[in-house]
Write a structure and sequence with these properties.
- By secondary structure, the protein is an alpha/beta fold.
- The protein folds into four domains: 70 residues; 226 residues, no CATH class; 176 residues, Aldolase class I (TIM Barrel), CATH 3.20.20.70; 136 residues, Aminopeptidase.
- 38% of the residues lie in helices and 16% in strands.
- The protein is built from 27 helices and 20 strands.
- The chain has a seven-stranded parallel beta sheet with strand order 1-4-7-8-9-10-12. Strands 14-15-16-17-18-20-19 form a seven-stranded mixed beta sheet.
- β19 and β20 form a beta hairpin.
- α22 packs across α23.
- The protein is globular and about 65 Å long.
């Protein structure tokens, strides 16, 4: 669009004239300006907030940062999450001939194409990974670009490996995947940050070819991917290659013969063929500007987009690839991984070298989460995850009933769940459990009892919880049962009732991180049919007079979005002691009792068993320390945030004090790679994968 930059400039001019505070007001200005540039009565392209942000001067970027910065919740908990998907790879139960879980979509040769196990290819993180050929280097660069485009500096990042099959991959592939995810953070830091830790916007815009128009998006993406794949294996710390790097990155050189070598491990045409929800046309996008609706309770953003039924493609018209899951598809997926490991330059830099650099990089990995199943979350897998730098493990518990796990072909038992949780806690990991109400053989009463047992039974005692009501999707065994009237999924109302009632007894040391999977509802045949189930539950709780006191409902960042007047004046340290997984847990909270606000906490554990040489019988584990607030850059302070105000030091001091009182002489911290420098300042040293201190 020849007038694209001019449109952005005129929008900025209007912003300078008026006191614009809401997205609705901004959208009105957009449409006013756009009406002047209609082609044949139509608007060619609506500038996004990021487009306006990049067209602005440095002064305007500072002035309108909050207005043009979208999705504040992305970093409101203090870190910038980066979700990655590894390549389609068969579940080991499938390889053994058992088959996947009856409700599980996706996987190699699924009706949705070759997509990661348990996903459909339509989820935001899946689409991003597919678009980047499941290359961790490309995915992380892409996500960091998005954060900067939203006006954020993602210097404290958390990597989340989704899909549940990562621990099934060969060890060499796991190391490769984490290595290049971290290298992307290190390289992004070297390329776009100055010595003071500020983003060099000139370099950033030149490399990412911004601002851009929608019609040029495909070529822009290919150009960026080609540039990145040419530097992926280079050591950017080597000054000898600096001139070559500058030539590659900042002169927009495109290598047409590259063919995504080293990154394209599945056929690019196949990626395009896999069913993706059609993008909105300009008319739909224009309409969406005024379909924002305030939601009582605010949900995650305080705003939601109301999905119009006319924009949802009918199920019978979904463009899925009809491929039956078979042995050939599984073997092809395994072969792809083998070929990848042969083609990649795996010896250029070691994982430990890259981890060491990330400790002081401008963008640091302060947490690494890996999803898995309990039968692949035992001691061997835990030790390997420690080597990778993992700090949190998400385990698909799904049910507390053996008969349900057996009926759904889960492949593990209740005892596997319990054993895995205990082992991983005693290694220092945080535990995020997944639970699925509405599975076959369960009743609403059984589901409510199951959720309550997760909280009350010390054999479980997870630190976090994701609640995923069972949904029916084509291509699964459960779909066949549903079509034959052998299974009835929970309705939206029923699922909301169960979750709302469970909030009556949620302990305050647990965080409910998600309610409902991010699979689009138009992909489901039965089950919950609303995308904003959490907001539905919040309204139901309000109606019933149920007050949830989980961490997420009390954390400072979320409370600040809801306009609560909170400050550190009334901060106090509170300790909750409880038994969990045969060990002793202490939840040390920094909170304001008057506003019921949680600023941060520390999880201190006296382990039940000593599984590594770093963890002695006189050791205490710190499994997590977190300060909740809008993210603030490392080494800087902000009046509007509670980070870097000494809360973390107070929590650590309390943990050390309690360890001494209980005759423990050593603290062992499971630390994110990028958080090691923080603990060094407190007197801790690296020992194996942990930061330790003798008291």
């Amino acid at each position: 669009m020849s007038n694209f930059n001019q449109i952005c400039i005129e929008i900025l001019q209007e912003l300078r004239k008026k006191d614009v505070k809401t997205q609705k007001q901004l959208n009105q200005i957009k449409l006013k300006i756009l009406n002047k540039y209609k082609t044949n009565g139509k608007i060619d392209y609506i500038p996004k907030n990021a487009d306006i942000y990049f067209a602005a001067s440095e002064e305007d970027r500072k002035k309108f940062k909050d207005l043009l910065s979208l999705k504040p919740v992305r970093t409101i908990s203090g870190v910038a999450p980066i979700a990655l998907m590894s390549e389609p790879y068969p579940c080991p139960h499938t390889m053994k001939g058992i088959g996947p879980c009856t409700y599980c979509p996706g996987g190699p040769g699924s009706p949705f194409g070759d997509v990661p196990q348990s996903y459909t290819g339509k989820e935001p993180s899946t689409r991003r990974s597919m678009r980047n050929f499941y290359d961790p280097y490309l995915i992380v660069f892409n996500r960091l670009e998005h954060y900067v485009a939203m006006g954020k500096v993602p210097d404290k990042a958390e990597i989340i490996i989704q899909g549940g099959t990562f621990t099934f991959f060969p060890k060499l592939y796991q190391e490769y995947f984490i290595k290049y995810a971290l290298k992307a953070m290190n390289d992004f830091s070297r390329l776009f940050f100055d010595e003071d830790g500020n983003i060099d916007m000139v370099k950033f815009k030149r490399f990412f070819e911004l601002p851009r128009v929608m019609s040029e998006e495909d070529s822009r993406i290919k150009s960026i991917q080609n540039k990145l794949l040419r530097i992926k294996h280079l050591d950017l710390s080597n000054l000898k290659v600096k001139e070559e790097i500058d030539s590659i990155l900042f002169n927009s050189i495109t290598n047409k013969n590259n063919n995504n070598k080293g990154g394209n491990f599945i056929n690019a045409l196949q990626v395009e063929q896999i069913a993706l929800r059609p993008p909105m046309n300009v008319e739909q996008e224009s309409a969406m500007l005024f379909q924002q609706k305030e939601v009582e309770g605010g949900g995650e953003h305080g705003l939601i987009y109301q999905e119009q039924s006319s924009s949802i493609p009918p199920k019978e018209k979904l463009n899925v690839i009809e491929i039956k899951s078979n042995e050939n598809a599984n073997m092809k997926a395994v072969k792809n991984i083998q070929n990848k490991l042969k083609s990649e330059n795996l010896t250029s830099l070691s994982l430990k070298q890259i981890q060491k650099e990330n400790e002081t990089s401008f963008i640091r990995c302060v947490g690494l989460t890996i999803e898995t199943k309990s039968d692949f979350g035992k001691l061997y897998h835990g030790n390997l995850m420690l080597e990778l730098g993992c700090t949190r493990v998400e385990i698909g518990i799904q049910s507390i009933y053996d008969e349900v796990l057996k009926a759904t072909n889960r492949g593990n038992t209740v005892q596997d769940n319990i054993e895995s949780i205990r082992i991983l806690k005693d290694l220092g990991f945080k535990i995020n459990a997944h639970y699925m109400p509405g599975l076959p053989l369960t009743t609403k009463e059984m589901d409510l009892k199951g959720l309550k047992e997760l909280f009350d039974n010390p054999d479980y005692g997870p630190d976090m919880l994701k609640i995923y009501p069972c949904m029916v999707m084509e291509g699964t065994r459960l779909y066949d049962d549903w079509k034959a009237d052998r299974f009835n999924p929970l309705t939206t109302k029923e699922a909301a009732e169960i979750i709302a009632e469970s909030k009556r007894f949620v302990p305050e040391f647990l965080r409910i991180t998600r309610i409902q999977r991010d699979i689009p509802t138009y992909m489901t045949a039965g089950g919950v049919d609303r995308t904003n189930l959490r907001q539905y539950v919040e309204k139901l709780c309000k109606k019933k007079g149920i007050r949830c006191r989980c961490i997420r409902c009390r954390e400072a960042g979320i409370n600040s979005i809801h306009n609560k007047k909170i400050s550190l004046k009334n901060l106090r340290i509170k300790v909750i002691e409880y038994d969990a997984s045969h060990g002793k847990e202490f939840f040390i909270a920094a909170e304001d009792k008057e506003t019921d606000t949680l600023f941060g906490y520390c999880r201190l554990r006296f382990p039940s068993q000593f599984l590594r040489e770093e963890i002695t019988k006189d050791s205490a584990l710190i499994r997590e320390i977190h300060v909740y607030s809008a993210a603030v850059q490392i080494g800087k302070k902000s009046d509007g945030s509670f980070q870097h105000k000494g809360i973390g030091k107070k929590l650590m001091a309390k943990a050390e004090e309690m360890a001494k009182q209980n005759r423990k002489d050593k603290i062992v911290v499971i630390s994110g790679i990028g958080a090691r420098e923080y603990f060094r300042k407190l007197g801790y040293e690296l020992e194996g994968p942990y930061m330790t201190k003798t008291l």
